[in-house]
Amino acid sequence: MQDGNFVYLTRERLFELERELKEMKTNGRKSIAAKIAEARAHGDLSENAEYDAAKEEQGLFELKISKLEDVLRRASLIDSSQFSTDSIHILSKVQIKNIKTNKIFDYLLVSPEEADFQAGKISITSPVGQGLLAKKVGDKVTVKAPAGILEFEVLSINK
Fold it and tell me: What is the model's pLDDT at position 138?
């Protein structure tokens, strides 16, 4: 569901990213500047590996800030109340059963920027997420994943 240049985010995730960016621009930059100043104090910069490492860290940090700003610039808020529970879509809370093992899994389908497998949030662009989109309760889903072919049954869909 990543149309054009939009990045679909929930309000909560948007606030998290805004807080992270603010923290990076204030305290994060100060911390890196302090590392560079400390390394500079060690003398000759042409042979100062600590200075080179701090400058490289600064470059990577600024790149991360730039990418985060880009995500926020392209952010489009989504709300689960916009969707029905007839079929699976972004922000659906689904319960699925692995047909081979009979294990039951609960997932929230989210945009790639919000995915957090440990928290039960899977991306709609992941193999399982793609396989589940538009399915209904009772549907069987076959997914080709890095772990092999997986088969699931959709048990429930909620907001």
Answer: 96
Taking the C-alpha atoms of residue 21 and residue 74, their distance in angstroms, rounded to an integer, is 15
In the chain, what percentage of residues exceed pLDDT 90? 65
- 7-77 in CATH: which number? 1.10.287.180
Distance between CA atoms of 68 and 71, rounded to whole angstroms?
Answer: 5
Domain ranges of the chain: 7-77, 80-158
Residues 14 and 93: their CA atoms lie apart, in Å, by: 19
Structure tokens belonging to residue 44 = 């000759």
Q: How far apart are CA 132 and CA 1, in angstroms?
A: 13
Distance of CA 19 to the CA centre of its chain: 16
* pLDDT tens column, 72-130: 999 988 877 777 789 999 999 999 999 999 999 999 999 888 899 999 999 999 999 99
Are 55 and 36 contacting, i.e. CB atoms less than 8 angstroms apart?
yes
Handedness of CA 129, 133, 138, 139 (dihedral sign): negative
Summarize the confidence of residues 12-22 as an average pLDDT: 94
